[in-house]
Amino acid sequence: MGSTASARNGTWRNWGGTVSARPAREVTPASVDELAAAVRRAAEDGLPVKAVGTGHSFTSIAATDGLLIRPQLLTGIRDIDRAAGTVTVEAGTPLKRLNLALAREGLSLTNMGDIMEQTVSGATSTGTHGTGRDSASIAAQIRGLELVTADGSVLTCSEKENPEVFAAARIGLGALGVITAVTFAVEPVFLLTAREEPMPFDRVCAEFDQFHAENEHFEFYWFPHTGNTNTKRNNRSAGPERPVHPLRGWVDDELLSNGAFQVANWVGRAVPPAIPAIARISSRALSARTYTDIPYKVFTSPRRVRFVEMEYAVPREALVETLKELKAMVDRSPLRISFPVEVRTAPADDITLSTASGRDSAYVAVHMFKGTPYQGYFTAAERIFTAHEGRPHWGKIHTRDAEYFSRVYPRFGEFTALRDRLDPERRFRNDYLRRVLGT
Ligand SMILES: Cc1cc2nc3c(=O)[nH]c(=O)nc-3n(C[C@H](O)[C@H](O)[C@H](O)COP(=O)(O)OP(=O)(O)OC[C@H]3O[C@@H](n4cnc5c(N)ncnc54)[C@H](O)[C@@H]3O)c2cc1C
Hints:
alpha+beta; 21 strands; binds flavin-adenine dinucleotide; Vanillyl-alcohol Oxidase, Chain A, domain 3; single chain; Uridine Diphospho-n-acetylenolpyruvylglucosamine Reductase, domain 3; eight-stranded antiparallel beta sheet; 439 residues
């Protein structure tokens, strides 16, 4: 886990470098019993408890000054049930390991995000998502959960068993208990054809509804200071498999998207006035390409350039207006933005605090290169997102609090009532949860 959350001199740091914490103690349990005993001991000592994944959240959602529970020894596949179409994995399993293991078994998740470094429990607890017309976030693919609650007991839930816990705990923000195992719906591995194509911003906005309706997975990146985007359409295919040629893959995904992009960002950080010119070049660097491969090779790619990010889900019908407002704000401001804005979608789901809970959603993500001031840009963007009743990604930077969330999440009270029942003493508390949940 070298590239992810690190601990030096007892200090825990997240991937983006935005958060650090000094836990009172750390454990790396190798079994559910060991984990439950650690939670009980922390309760006896009056310590708060926090399980972490790989520290890929930009918010302080995973930070603790109490007991830090590390995931490294709770990994691997517990069970594959082909008849039910499910796989049960230990909660600390990295998504990468899950995807590789599933592919070996001829299986796959239906949808996923941009990277696969995170743990299954960390990714799902904040609502990590990719893009989809019909298929939703990774948490929406959960069929069952096992968690250790505040009193050290083990609770299992699914649509049939403890359904009120299942409704909330799939995106539980680490507030309801420590997840020890996750059961996902899986399907026989399939092929996706990806079509990547540069396109003018105005055309994408004008035809967004059509692109969304006609493609299973549509997304695009807009390059601030330009009228250019890169679009990506992924659709199921009968084959044959036609992976990206290794040399082209290296040029596009390593050299241009990581190596040259890193250099462009260094130059932009040193000479901000150069950023619009760099953006015009970056936005034209990648040309159209089409390839067909298994899902995780199409959905995910390495992200080596470090950044900070804010992402909001707005009602899907408000997307184009939101984007035009964002572009107008950037155009009339002195801001210099070297990172593209990413746009994705998700259908409504039934998870209490999912950013897509009960409404068809579109995600707009703004990024800044690590080490550049981001507050001015993010504050201005957040003003636009919240005017559209946006819901921020739980793991990405935002300034919202419980009062706001109780307005934009109709089922907010359902989540806090469940938390009152499962964790009345707030064993799983931290400052972030106090802000977003109110206590
Ligand atoms: C480069 C990069 C790319 C990203 N791409 C995407 C993307 O495409 N889509 C997207 O939606 N997000 C994306 N994210 C955000 C990321 O997926 C989320 O922040 C995710 O939560 C990180 O997972 P993690 O394993 O690092 O968890 P952490 O950040 O370590 O923890 C997140 C939360 O999960 C809780 N948690 C962890 N383990 C447990 C457990 N066992 N039981 C209970 N709670 C637990 C923690 O307490 C915390 O509340 C990206 C982030 C980065 C840095």
